[in-house]
Each structure stands twice: as structure tokens, then as C-alpha cells.
Amino acid sequence: MSGAKKLKIGILDIVTRNPKPTLYGRIMHGNLASIMPQAIGVWCEEAGHDVTFICYTGHEDLNTDFPDDMDILFIGAFTQSAQLSYAVSNLFRKRGVVTVLGGPHARCYPEDSQFYFDYVLGFTDKAVISDVLADCAPHQPHGRLMSAATQPRELPGVRERWKFISSTLAKTATNFKMVPMIASLGCPYTCSFCIDSVVKYQPLDFEQIRGDLKFLLTKFKRPIVGWHDPNFGVRFDDVLSVIEEADPEHRMRFIAESSLSLLSEERCKRLASAGFEGMLPGIESWFDMGHKSKTGAKQAREKMLQVSDHVNMIMRYIPYMQTNFVLGLDCDKGPEPFELTKEFLDLTPGAFPAYSLFSAFGQAAPLNLELQKEGRILRSPFHFLNNNLAMNVKPMNYDWPEFYSRLVDLTKHSFTWKAIGRRARATSGFTPKWMNVVRAVSSEGFGRIKYHTALRARLDTDTSLRAFFDRETETIPQYYVDSVKSDLGPFWEQLPEGSLEHDQNAYLKKSNLAAAAAQ
Ligand code: SF4
């Protein structure tokens, strides 16, 4: 510390958008913790400060769980938790606490976040945190933007993060406890909608990973690791060798997100033998992005059949498969994308489908600049921007009623009892079967059918909502306002005035200003 003041630091990892408990939340929220808030906790303690770490799963009482005399509060949030994080920041700023926002929302919407936090962090490393702590002062009305030039070269491992990991996993209602680890940052692929497409691929320290895996074997009989790599296995042989060496008795289980192009049969055999039980590949569309599913120029039904064969092959080795789709992309039009997905599910009954609605998160990806230039972005409140509850990009080839009708139809097809039963029968192992059923009957399956069906009906009856969707007005529809109020509960009172709105074209304005300054 060498004379610097010892600070009382709070760290809040927000993994939910509201304080409402759900079955899925009780089982899963503790498993959704991010790595970076834990890393910040380690760096702050290394600098000699007192840290209170909370992963907010919707049940905690922030008024009593943090110390009264806290100096500074770091909050990590995805965009769906932005309004909750703004309310929490306001609550603590009124008590004289300096607040800091990091995580995906801060990176995607820095200008908006500046209104509600004293610091807003882009790429964050130990030096950035050290600078924030050295300054540690209120910055109003605009928070200070701070960022490293790149993602950090190294991050604290599981051993160093353990006390934060274990307190978070203690919140999960079952024995399914997933330890967050990461073996690489960024991605060599360039999917234009993806935040990681602009981050240089970089493997992390394999020796640290080896040590962390061995450490975990001393903590659990059969540890479960959730790999947070955007695209696991780019350096396939290297990372699998590390895992095999660290766990020769194959006691560990792993879940990862990986491109189909990386998952050949030989590799799947090796993954299975190493303990991989869950894979979440992105298919995205039947009409584009063939490079990441190894289907090349194949499109439509030809691509769908090849991908179905590929996924069925993977499932012979890895029991849990979530296949990710993006709906409403510009390459899609008419009924075919939806009908092909239904056929895919019939041909690939074990796969759990995860549908994302085409969304543009601020300045996350280069494509968003084009969409803003074309005036296609809606001012949808952040609270709904989780790829499901709102689609903030006007689809190129669908009007809203058609899009939502097709979405409802596809979602229903995916989560009928018949489909749920077929999925259970096509999935091996108790935990994968059980996960699929819980997800289908909770907010992810039945919940989405209900939500999308209600929204589709509203498009015909709620004129203010329809005008908003058609970009005839930017006034936030009362339906959205009421939903946020209901969801936030006691935090609604703390939501700063005007913070339900944001400038959906801030990225375009910023790049225009930068271009003008460069001339
Ligand atoms: S492969 Fe996945 S992680 Fe990589 S750029 Fe595409 S969507 Fe992003």
C-alpha cells in the first residue's frame, strides 16, 4: 500500500435483470457469474484493500450485504441489467460511494453509462483498476471513460479467485455448480454482429490452466468447468493436452462454446474422453456464415442437412448440445429460415435450440455502424436487450407481424411436450436430460412462447407499441415502462430520471465526430 489509503471496495457482478426469483434462476444464476469481477476482486486485494464481493442473483439485499462505509463500488453488467445497474449506482452514489461500471454494457454503451457512473471501463486490466483506485473520486455529470489498449495478457486463475467463486456457487440450489474458467480471449472468426469478432484471438497461460484444473480436483469430487472462451478450442491440441495431463483419471466435466468447424469426429472423441459433456455451437443462419459451421458455400436445406448430420454425430460423444441461431438476419427472408429450423429440430431431436433475435448492442460490432447509418435501430430500453425480449433492429425482409408470427410458431414447435419428450429421449445422462426439461418448461421455453405470443398480439392492438416498432415515434411505449417498473420492484424508485431512454445512434455520431476531427 505504501501510504495509500486502504479502501473499502464493493464488487457487484449482476447476472440477472431483476430481483424476481424463478426456478431457472435458482438453479442457474450462480452458474452465470463472470470472470472479470472476480479478477478485479483479486487485483484490489493484492493492492491491500478490503473487498466485499457479491454476485447478484436476484435474492441478495444490497442495503445490508455491503458495508455502510464503502468507498467505491465496481459493477459488472450485461445490457439487460443496465437499468438495474443504473438504479444500484444511483442508490450508492447518494450515500457518497464512487461507482464504476465495467462489462459488456460499459463496452457497448459507454456514452450512456457515463451519465450514471463515475467511471466507465472498456478493456480492463490491472493497471486500469490501479488508476481508478488511485483517483477514486466522483465524476459528474459525466463519468470518466478508461480503457486499456487491449484485453489483458493474463488474468487471475481459479486458485486466486476461489473465495469469490465458492461464495457464488454456494447460491445455486442444486449440485450443478459450474466453475468459470477461460483459456483464450477474442476469436479469429469475423462474424459481423459479434463483439468478439473485433478482439484479437489470444490464448491464455496454459501452465496456469493446468494448475487451476489440478486445484479444482482438490475441491470437488467431480468438478464441472464452464469455459468462458468466446470460441473454445481454436488451439485445440494445446488446450486438450493440458486438460488430459491435469486430469488423467477423467474426473472433470466441461461445457464450452465452440464452432462446428472445430468439432470433427476425431476431436469429439477426444473431447468426450476428456470429460466434455456440453457444447454450444453457433449455427446462426441457414443462409450465411458457412465458414464457422464448415458448410462453406452450402445454403438453405443443403446446409441444414449437413449441420444436422454434424450435430447428431457430435451428440454420439457429447450428450448436451445447445444450438444457437440468430433470427431476422438480413440474409433471411420468407418462411424458409424458420421452416428449415423446424425441420432441423425434427432431424436433430437432442439439440436444445437457443434463439437470439437479431440485435445491435451499441458499438459492440462494426455491423452496428452500418445499421445506425441506415436508421434501422430502435430505441428499445436496455432492460429488454438480451437477444430475446426485444429485437432492436428493424428486419430487412420481414414486417413485424410476420416476423413475430413466425417466431411464435417456431418457438411453439421447439417446446411442445412432444418435442421436449423427444429431446429427453435423444439425450443421454441424467443431468443433460434434466437441464433440457428445466430449460424448456421455465422462462426459456414456455416463458418465451407466452412472451412472444403476447407481444405478437400487441402489435395489432397497442398503437403506441406498433408505432415505436415502426420507428414512427421514439417515445418509449407504456407497455415497456410498466414492464420495467414491475420487474425492478424496489429498485424502480432509484432509477435515474430519463435513464429508460438512450441515444441508439451514439456510435454513429461518435464515429462521425472522429472522422470530422481527423480531416
Ligand atoms: S465464431 Fe462465435 S465468437 Fe467467433 S466471431 Fe463468430 S460469433 Fe463471435
- How much β-strand is present in the residues? 5-15%
Helix and strand content put the structural class at alpha/beta
Q: What best-fitting shape do the alpha-carbon axes yield?
A: globular
Number of helices: 22
For the record, give the distance between the C-alpha atoms at the N and C termini, rounded to a whole number.
46 Å
Mean pLDDT: 95
Question: How would you characterize this protein structure?
Answer:
This protein is α/β, with parallel strands linked by helices and 519 residues long. It has 22 helices and 15 strands. Strands 7, 10, 11, 12, 13, 14 and 15 form a seven-stranded parallel sheet that branches. Helix 9 packs parallel to helix 10. Iron/sulfur cluster is lined by residues 187, 189, 191, 194, 196-197, 230-231, 259, 282, 292. The site of iron/sulfur cluster (SF4) has 11 residues, from loops.
Topology:
Elements: E1 8-14, H1 23-28, H2 35-46, E2 50-56, H3 62-65, E3 72-76, H4 82-93, E4 98-102, H5 104-108, H6 110-114, E5 119-121, H7 126-135, E6 144-146, H8 158-169, E7 178-181, E8 184-185, E9 202-203, H9 206-217, E10 224-227, H10 236-246, E11 253-256, H11 265-274, E12 276-279, E13 282-284, H12 290-293, H13 300-315, E14 320-327, H14 336-347, E15 352-357, H15 366-373, H16 400-414, H17 417-426, H18 430-441, H19 446-461, H20 463-469, H21 478-488, H22 506-518
Parallel strand pairs: 1-2, 1-3, 3-4, 4-5, 5-6, 7-10, 10-11, 11-12, 12-14, 13-14, 14-15
Antiparallel strand pairs: 8-9
Helix pairs in contact: 2-8, 9-10, 10-11, 13-14, 14-16, 16-19, 17-18
The protein binds iron/sulfur cluster (SF4).
